[in-house]
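Help! Submission page says 'invalid entity' but I think these are all valid:
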Amino acid sequence: MIPTSKKKTAVNLDQLAARLLEARGKRVLLLPHVGADGDAIGSALALRRLLNKAGVSADVLVDEPVPEVLHFIPESAAIVQVTDAADHDPTAYDFSLLVDCHESDRIGRRAPLFEATEGRGSLDHHVYQIEPGDFDVIDPTKSSTSEMVYLLLKVFETMTGETFLDAIMANQMASGIVSDTGRFSYSNATPGTFRVTAELVDHGADLVTASYELFDRISLNALRMKGLVLARAKSHADGLILVSTIPQKLIDVCNSSDYDLNTIPSELRNVSDVAVVFLIRETTEAGVIRVNIRSDERLNAAHLANRFGGGGHARAAGLTLRNLTLEQAAEQLIDAAMKELASEHGD
Ligand SMILES: [Mn+2]
């Protein structure tokens, strides 16, 4: 992770706020990134509500259906799924805003809509390499885009003399903050995050529900499968490497789905002394094996995944293997991990 002090920031909330308020009586397009998470959806919905209250029509467009786990976020039913960008008229919009991302390659099939809008900007907290434009507000020191929506809301209030925050908006933003901070357990939860969250709770944000919906709620089928997968975990290299292999029939027997496996790699990584975890699973496609890697600072998961044609982040990565048994796949990955660990090139 890049130390906070070294992160570049592009912060001109006033300029973006003024431009959005210029769109009063017109329409604005809000575009969260593909693979939308709690922050992408929560911040986009809060922006939509804020803009509507300020007299700006706003539409949230996405590529994929909103994941079921995010349906508890208020007004998520207002999100529109785009199946073909040609079905939407970009000239209907005065301004397009990338939400929780800052490059059009993060918005999938909606990119042509963004490119065709006259006014364009972004509101984001991811680390960036681009040269920010006049309406790009990118601040990697913030926990979440939702936290930034709150700051934008305060600028709106100063500029208009009106008040906008209500319980629905507070819950939309709180969902994003709880999601991106791992319910305040990651280092991105700063004193500023807590101050903003305190304001949101004051206005009716329900952190207990957000935390339960985003991190705890699980179907009985998924819980049973998790139990079986955890029980199958095998330790290698004196406990440094933990591997769980999952035949497709196990997923079928539990009447569960791939989606239910998402949290398991991180749980395996929490085991004391474990440096790297492999979750190796068959897929519904014959001969195709999917691998999830989680690691700590002793091993770079992205480097390891690259060796097998995969990719990702330093602590979380993934790859696809073909025409191997689960046992062969495990053997190759353990071997590669042991070499990587021995080379002491972790970070
Ligand atoms: Mn985010």
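Support: the input was valid. A stray whitespace character was the problem, and the output above is from the cleaned input. The mean pLDDT is 92.
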